[in-house]
Design a protein that fits this description.
The protein has helices at residues 18-29, 61-64, 70-76, 92-102, 114-120, 138-146, 158-163, 181-207, 215-225, 229-238; strands at 5-11, 43-50, 56-58, 81-87, 108-112, 124-129, 149-152, 171-174, 212-214, 242-244. It is α/β, with parallel strands linked by helices. The strands form two sheets. Strands 3-4-2-5-1-6-7-8 form an eight-stranded mixed sheet, with helices on both faces.
Amino acid sequence: MKHPLLIGIGGAHSGIGKTTIASAVIAHLTDHPIYPFSHPPKIGAIKYTKTAFYSSIVDDKTIIRQENKDTKKLLDAGSENVLWVQSPQNELDEILPLAVDRLSGLDCVIVEGNSAIEFLKPDVVIFLFDDSRGRIKPSAVRILKMADIIALRDEDQRPEVRDRNANKSVRYCLAPAPADKKTLKLLINLIEMTIKEKNIEELLRKKSDEGRLTCSEARKIAEELGVEYKEVGKTANKLKIKIKNCELGCF
């Protein structure tokens, strides 16, 4: 995976609570390390706003810390640095790589905004779903299909999400309220599970030979990534990769 780890947070429409969720995730991670970090990660954030005519990366703390700005909420949550990226759609390919590069010394970067997510393709994509307004932006439909985790405002909305052709392997949870530690912890667990699975998938595809892998190679993958053997076996089954010559019954 890329470094820093990118976590994207998008949503069905503006005002759905992307910054609230992003701030909660940042606050939790700065106190509680998750895989693949052995220590609380240093986190940055990118807040993207679409503009019509100009591009800019704002990091001036007098602007970032203005009251009632989303950037202040992200900074107050524990971000080491927050960048406010403003750009037309057709200039994202120039401005977003510059923003990520500025935060390259950090462990993790939270990316907020559908268009930014679509361009950067983060390691983990979280999508907030709520159709109570009766509309979902076109850009949101594309992010919904990219989502690894879908956070629902109401569990009854899950069938509708499936009808919109969401990724079949997507994970679901309820969108955590600011003070709801239980649902936030579930979201964090899903983020960790997604990162692990993608890391395992990457190495399995790289090291398998025509859909086959030796037990010794599978164990090395688990040890390299710091995950349990059974997690490698589970992911191998999902990818239809056969682990041969099993020596210890681990797979």
